[in-house]
Amino acid sequence: MSQQDGVWVKAQQSPEFAKLRKSYRGFAFPLTAAFLSWYFLYILLTAFARDFVVTPVIGNINIAFILGVLQFVSTFVIMWLYERHSSKVLDEAGEKIRVQVDAELGK
Amino acid sequence: MTFDHTTLSSAMFLMFVLVTLFVVYRASRQNTKATDFYNGGANFSGFQNGLAIAGDYMSAASFLGIAGTIALFGYDGFLYSIGFLVAWLVALLLVAEPLRNSGRFTMGDVLAFRMRQVPVRTAAATSTVVVSVFYLLAQMVGAGALVALLMGFTDPVAKNWVIVGVGILMIIYVTVGGMRGTTYVQIIKAFLLMSGAAVMTFMVLWHFQFDISAMLGAAQAASGNADFLEPGQRFGKDVFDAAGNLDAVKTLFSKLDLISLALALILGTAGLPHILIRFYTVPTSKDARTSVNWAIGNIGAFYLMTIALGFGAAALVGAEAIIAKDKAGNVAAPMLAEHLGGGAGTLGGAVMLAVVGAIAFATILAVVAGLTLASSSSLAHDLYANVIKRGTATPEQEVRVARVAAFVIGGLAIVLAILAQGLNVAFLVALAFAIAASANLPAVLFSLFWKEFNTRGAVWAIYGGLFSAVGLLIFSPVVSGAETSLISSTTGIMFNWFPLANPGLVSIPFGFFMGWLGTKTSSERNYAKYAELEVRSLTGADIGKAVQH
Predict the structure, then answer these.
(1) What pTM value is reported for the model?
(2) Whole-angstrom distance between the N-terminal and C-terminal Cα of chain B?
(3) B 481-500: CB under 8 A from A
(4) Which of B145, B251, B462, B499 is most buried as measured by Cβ atoms within 10 A of its Cβ?
């Protein structure tokens, strides 16, 4: 293992990095599972629950339209949630480790 | 007095071409390093790159195809809009930032980070070129048909000249301007597309006094189809046999086909090489995230507007008039524009049609330039520099090869698009998404997040996903077995044993499985390199000179 490799491995095994990884993965992975499930729920409903999704709600607007627009809404909300989490937590924690690693690499 | 739009259309096409050529020339003079060809100097802001991503992503298939599908089939066109948007969350949450931090120029940079360079870079270049060329072909054939239609060319030779013209322009954009020039073209296009769609949406909604239910009702009434506002007119249809009974097996396949398409749409975006390389044009991962936020904002707003464009066209122009001009419905948006301007033969109608035609032309040019850039970058940086020259090429040599590659890819695309004239190549966009989701996405995600992932895993994931997607398509009803197949069933030649038109449902899990199997059956592990990749990807450490092998 080269000296450089040593710097990376040390950084990876530090408790600060473990915390950053957990904070990122603990946020991004469940959210990914959630939006994929929600999207496929929508697709499965339009494929297999036609009688349900064609129920009109407001005038000619049926449940299928409302579910579709809600997919847009959920996309915007998830984007906002992730931006908030990143700018509040991830950016700062990552920056600290970056400065440390760059110093050790002699940059 | 009646007004003909063709002179005005020609003038607007010409104006767009001249403005973009000027911008591309100016951009080329800003290029200071050879590698600016790949990443435009990595100096764009998140906002600029967000617009460029939107410009790179929203192809003619989005603007013309979705509006047309909604106009002819109602609700089901909207399914495309949703899939194309939600897909961006995969890119946002899992791909954009880590990719920015751990690569420099190509998708292959990240895939080959801790692997043996030659096999992985070869595989990455192969799938980049295949995905990009399929996508490119669909756009160029569409360009020929669109421009011919708008200009009233009926001669097939005129269509060929349009394809040649589009091909030459994209080669110029890419070889002269590189990534910086292409980015500016995409920003201009995104601005034009968003403005044009917003004006049309406003006019449609104004017509219906902002009553969306009334707009939908009018579309349904004009279609003469009681179920027009319900899912299942185009995808996941109920199939009946000759006696009028529901055919349960065929109906199930039809619904599985819808799910297969949905899977490819939502997982393909984050594996499209021409999208991935856009994340390298900004200086930090935070800017990459901001880019995706802006892209999602623009793309989301645009796809919401497709509802008004599609149903507006159905209500105001009518499916019959649209089909009379183009069976696939691709002229729905331009015809709607003409109607909103006052109708055929009026000055307003001619102006609106010319403007929207020019926007569609701009849309195609920006996308084909992005695709050509992605394939030539990968051929130069992955294949030439890291496979053929084993990392000994200078950046100047690399970029010279990239320019030559842009000519080769562009030339190939021109020839193939001319040969494919008259074939229904709309399936190629869905196929490109399916390959991106089956071959590229598994390799990218495993690379970023799985410690054990190794050379064999990466190579098997890419080729497994690529060959299964293309292979299944060959044996699907797209190629043979139906009257509308590439090889029409009237010829009696049929080999369609795979029942779905979209291979994703099988090929995407297969790509992930092959990535896992390859990894587990090889003893190669490189945990120290993974430590580097992981720390880089989450922190941006050492970003100035990431991955130069």
Answers:
(1) 0.95
(2) 67
(3) none
(4) B462
